[in-house]
């Protein structure tokens, strides 16, 4: 099974990610708001790289979910989600986004802080898999780290990101270690390059829906 080098394990994830990624919880609010505006009903939802189930928690709080599918490469993450949502209509898939082979099945596909772990070639294949998994009119939401357009922008934003982590309780060494993952353990691309991939994969409409620091949100409609 293909894997990616995630920053945190299942049992520390929720605590660590909020100290590391600015506005992390805002990602889910943005998705919920747009799904609400688009007026989806009885939703079939696939969450790739589901982690501990924060996307599912938000979705179940706001919408009538017909089926929620959890997909992750971590068996520990899936065990957590099974326990959290054991009384819901769910499916669980221990697999990478590279391996999904659904066709015209889901209204919504979400991928939160996942795609930047893939190089450009694999990223295109993953996004194409997401496109195929969607029903006509379905929506892909992706939030991830992105690459600034210039060297100056990269340097400035990485310094801001390091400062954020230190201000939220990390040591300087911990913050520096995470910053040094850029281009080594994950592979951000520019916002324009991300939109180009959505277009190339066949999405009828595609937009940047949120930007802050070095994180951005995107959507594509099949």
UniProtKB/TrEMBL annotation:
<keyword id="KW-0949">S-adenosyl-L-methionine</keyword>
<keyword id="KW-0489">Methyltransferase</keyword>
<keyword id="KW-0808">Transferase</keyword>
<dbReference type="GO" id="GO:0008168">
    <property type="term" value="F:methyltransferase activity"/>
</dbReference>
<dbReference type="InterPro" id="IPR029063">
    <property type="entry name" value="SAM-dependent_MTases_sf"/>
</dbReference>
<dbReference type="GO" id="GO:0032259">
    <property type="term" value="P:methylation"/>
</dbReference>
<protein>
    <submittedName>
        <fullName>tRNA (Cmo5U34)-methyltransferase</fullName>
    </submittedName>
</protein>
<dbReference type="InterPro" id="IPR041698">
    <property type="entry name" value="Methyltransf_25"/>
</dbReference>
<dbReference type="Pfam" id="PF13649">
    <property type="entry name" value="Methyltransf_25"/>
</dbReference>
<feature type="domain" description="Methyltransferase">
    <location>
        <begin position="46"/>
        <end position="138"/>
    </location>
</feature>
């Amino acid at each position: 099974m293909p894997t990616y080098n995630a920053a945190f394990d299942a049992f520390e994830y929720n605590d660590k990610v909020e100290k590391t990624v600015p506005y992390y919880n805002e990602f889910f609010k943005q998705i919920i708001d747009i799904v609400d505006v688009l007026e989806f009903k009885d939703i079939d939802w696939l969450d790739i790289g589901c982690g501990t189930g924060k996307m599912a928690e938000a979705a179940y709080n706001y919408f009538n979910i017909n089926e929620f599918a959890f997909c992750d490469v971590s068996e520990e993450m899936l065990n957590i989600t099974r326990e959290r949502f054991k009384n819901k209509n769910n499916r669980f898939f221990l697999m990478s986004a590279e391996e999904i082979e659904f066709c015209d099945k889901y209204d919504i596909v979400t991928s939160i802080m996942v795609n930047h772990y893939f190089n450009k070639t694999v990223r295109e294949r993953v996004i194409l898999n997401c496109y195929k998994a969607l029903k006509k009119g379905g929506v892909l939401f992706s939030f991830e780290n992105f690459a600034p357009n210039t060297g100056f922008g990269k340097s400035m934003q990485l310094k801001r990101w390091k400062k954020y982590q230190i201000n939220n309780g990390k040591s300087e060494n911990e913050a520096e270690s995470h910053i040094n993952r850029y281009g080594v353990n994950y592979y951000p691309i520019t916002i324009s390059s991300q939109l180009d991939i959505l277009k190339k994969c066949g999405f009828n409409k595609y937009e940047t829906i949120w930007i802050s620091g070095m994180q951005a949100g995107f959507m594509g409609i099949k």
